[in-house]
Amino acid sequence: MSVTLKINGETRTLDADPESPLLWALRDELGMTGTKFGCGIASCGACTVHWDGVPIRSCQTFVGDLEGAEITTIEGIDSKAATAVQAAWNELDVPQCGYCQSGQIMAATALLAETPKPTDEDIDAAMDGNVCRCATYARIRKAIHLASDKMEA
Amino acid sequence: MLHLLQQPLAAVTPTRRSFLKISAGAVGGLVLAMNLPRSAALAAEGEFIQPFVHIRPDNTVVVISKHFDMGQGTASGLSTLVADELDASWEQVRVEFAPSNPQVYANTLFGVQGTGGSTAMANSFMQYRQAGAAAKAMIVAAAAKEWGVPAGEITVSGGVVSHGSDKSATLGELAGLAANEDVPAEPVLKTPDQWVYIGKSFPRLDVKNKTVGAPKTYTMDFQRDDLLVAVVARSPRFGGKVKSFDAAEAKKVPGVVNVLQIPNGVAVIAKSTWPAIKGRSLLEIEWDDAEAETRSSDAMIADLKDMTTKPGVKVREDGDFDAALEASARVIEAEYDFPFLAHGAMEPLDIAMMFDGETAEFWFASQIPTIDHNVAATVLGIPFEKVKINTLWAGGSFGRRAQADAHPVVEITTLAKAMQAAGMAPAPVKIVWTREDDMAGGYYRPMSAHRLRVGLDEQGNVTAFKYNIAAKSIVKGTPFEAMLMKDGVDHNMTEGAHDTTYAFPLMNMDQSFQETQVPVLWWRSVGHTHTAYVMETMVDRLAKEAGKDPVAYRLEMIKDDPRKVGVLKLAAEKAGWDTPLPEGRHRGVAVHKSFGSYVAEVAEVSFRDDGTVKVEKVTAAVDCGTPINPDNIRAQVEGGIGYGLGAILRNQVTLADGVVEETNFDTYEPLRMSDMPEIEVHIVSSNEAPTGIGEPGTPPIGPAVANAIAAAKGEWATSLPLAKAGLV
Questions:
Q1: Is a pLDDT exceeding 60 seen at residue A3?
Q2: Is the pLDDT of residue B42 over 80?
């Protein structure tokens, strides 16, 4: 089956099994490995990408449903929020093993695009689906607040 | 502090341009008395190559990390040591992982190349500083000759080599000439007051790549045009074997290339990951469970508890416990049990290799390359030199990738042989473990049972302490047995207990070994994961029995252990131990030494309306000797606390008739953002040799939280996780 969609602003045609999760199409068919495989059941958020700006789990989003979709991955983020998030992540040395961080950054970017001044409760709600086994949560929280300040500056 | 890293490289001066011409004519490379990781003859012109540092003509300083990096900042830490002694600019420093070569890259505490036990910095501190200092001496010697000036008048700072105000060059410009200089036998190291990076907080080298989803970082990302991806159906019961299988439906999946039986199961080989996963779901396999573990975890725990009632192997024997107990006024008894724990690293296990029939090349996060390398050569039946291991960044490990049996290497090499036997053309292949494969695949923190009997006198002082522990040994029956077991005693299981510095007048400890097919492994902090919990909750209880404050009681009992006293006092002071708490808040404390480092943690908890516990704040104090990068130490303690907290709150791997029940993050629920307490980390300044920091933050958090709960409820949880007591 062939599906045409936009990925990071570029029109792409995916010739893949409609049952294939978007995650594997991105990684294996398009060679975009920034989006990570963590659990395969939408429980960890490592595979988070944006669909029309909304954070979704690409391991539970299927190629067959994506005709005409606009997908943004970690390789393609360049919004004001994304730039601020990445800068804050670097400034605070957030990552440890780093494997979950693409997903964390995609979730944080979507949060800040929607809620530029998030409270701790907003952060809990937006980020609870993104697991970090290195438990960098305290720094992620701090980095989201820092990114928010950067966006304002 | 950051300003140290932001010095721009000096602008190119005419002097340095003319120098470039000279150095371009020099032949790079250096012959060393030891095995080089790659032949000096292969060095690019103008390149300086030593085992631990390469300096390239483009002015890049490449530190060769003999340790892999599973997130603990090891690669950056080792680079710091070289950069400091070499006086490089941090901006010109890159890091690469060393090839497998135990002659050059052994962990000096292990004798083989490998990472673990929080030893990376401890065993590299002198070695990597010496490497940096030697390189600097050679650079300076080369510049002295080139400029015709005394070496003593040359300075190096921020990667710029200078003499007075008229001569200067970059490290890269001098690299080729320096390569011809003699390697100093005993390079002069800086004194601590001369350090420019050590002891300062500065950015890690891997962060940028990890915030942009950079390719080629992790094994999971390994790609080749002709890469095949395999997933393996393994026995649902540990020790089970394939009796028969039907692959007809699996082979119909577009993209599936072949289905082959290997010793460990049935491998579905495809052109990419999804068809392999889908194909595997269509396999029909009959398993032979004749030799498999078929018990449930409840039965295994009952077996362990029974073992603790009987004498075991003597780990510590101070004297006659029964006589001491006889003379005591009363006795306190406690029984603890701990579940299997999965490591649950974010990157599931994975490994890639290419075997052409004569040589093999691997790409994965190899935690113990010497074992992986030997196993690969043995299984493939090729010489050691025909195996090459490329180590990649690990998306976590927490011990999971440090297997004594190198099972991923065994699996992929047996697969490569099966592919060869099936007449398939040689092609690179990657085995991907799904989350379920990873979590249900064993290699757990062992489940364990603990029985304590403590005699007290009339005033509540300890007269005698007896501790029986039962678990499956991580090392018994493995290649590590010879190194880590002495006289039949496995100290990995009892570390943190048998060597306690609590001044008990008499302490005896026995251990018993459970036999099971369930493979067990070190899990961040190993034996301390259970001993710290048992010792620190018991000591809390003993303080109460003696009518004393938990901190004051501990300080009395560890007064001959000054560094432990130091962290306990610091954590108590910073947490405001002696100040009143807000309504509804409760405090607990724990202090523990592991991997040479001392950590005290004060946990502050509250209870939600439904009775579940919320850990609000943790104040930690750590003494890990000379702090190399304080910010990374804080990060490791924060992470160590989070990792331990998730486990004691709600994690357990249980078996039903031998089959794992928790196979993904929906049932093995990890710590999440909303669970994360506020954490403060205070670092003791110290001139002692640096010790571990990857693990020591983990052991105290469980008992600190349990003690805080006990401060509110009067009872210490003895069966983990806390969820079993309705606290989560």
A1: yes
A2: no
Number of domains comprising chain A: 2
Q: CB B638 to CB A93 under 8 A?
A: no
Query: B59-107 pLDDT, tens per residue?
Result: 999 999 999 999 999 999 999 999 999 999 999 999 999 999 999 999 9
Task: Please answer whether residues B648 and B706 qualify as being in contact, where contact means their C-beta atoms are separated by less than 8 angstroms.
Answer: yes
CA B632 to chain A, closest CA, distance in angstroms equals 9
Together in a domain, A95 and A131: yes
Q: Read off the amino acid at residue B448.
A: S
CA distances from B44 to B58, B83, B88 (A): 11, 22, 21
Q: Which of the listed CATH numbers 3.30.450.40, 3.10.310.10, 3.40.50.800, 3.30.365.10 matches domain B2-204?
A: 3.30.365.10
| B428 in contact with A, Cβ within 8 Å | no
A135 neighbourhood in chain B, CB within 8 Å: 638-643, 645-646, 671, 676
Cα–Cα distance between B204 and B632 in angstroms, integer? Answer: 8
Q: In this complex, do B638 and A138 lie within 8 Å of one another by their Cβ atoms? A: yes
Q: Which of B673, B695, B701 to mutate to test the interface with A (most CBs of A within 10 A)?
A: B673
- Residue B721 pLDDT class (50, 70, 90 cuts): very high
Q: Classify domain B297-341+444-725 by CATH architecture.
A: 2-Layer Sandwich (3.30)
pLDDT at B7 over 90: no
pLDDT 10s digits, B390-445: 999 999 999 999 999 999 999 999 999 999 999 999 999 999 999 999 999 999 99
**Do B2-204 and B219-290+349-432 share a fold?**
yes
pTM for the predicted model, two decimal places: 0.94
Range of the domain at A114: 80-152
Say yes or no for a CB contact (<8 Å) between B272 and A40: no
Evaluate whether ipTM surpasses 0.90: yes
Same domain, A39 and A14: yes
B255 in Cβ contact with A71 (< 8 Å): no
d(CA B218, CA B351): 10
Mean of pLDDT values over B293-315: 98
Using a CB–CB cutoff of 8 Å, tell me whether B345 touches chain A.
yes
Cα A85 vs. chain centroid, distance in angstroms?
12
Tell whether B224 is within 8 A of chain A (Cβ): no
| B325 contact partners, CB below 8 Å, separation of at least 6 | B331, B453, B455, B463, B464, B466
Specify the 3-state DSSP secondary structure of B142: helix
Quick: pLDDT tens for A125-139. 999 999 999 999 999
B460 at A interface, C-beta within 8 A: no
Nearest CA-CA distance, residue A142 and chain B, Å: 11
d(CA A68, nearest CA chain B) in Å: 22
Q: Are residues A65 and A89 in the same domain?
A: no
The minimal CB distance from B223 to the residues A25, A31, A128 is found for A31
Q: What is the CATH number of the domain that holds A120?
A: 1.10.150.120
B219-290+349-432 under CATH 3.20.190.10, yes or no: no
| Contact with chain A for residue B398, Cβ under 8 A | yes
**Residues of A with CB below 8 A from B698's CB?**
none
* Burial of B677 (C-beta count, 10 Å sphere; 0-12/13-18/19+): buried
Do residues A70 and A91 both lie within one domain?
Answer: no
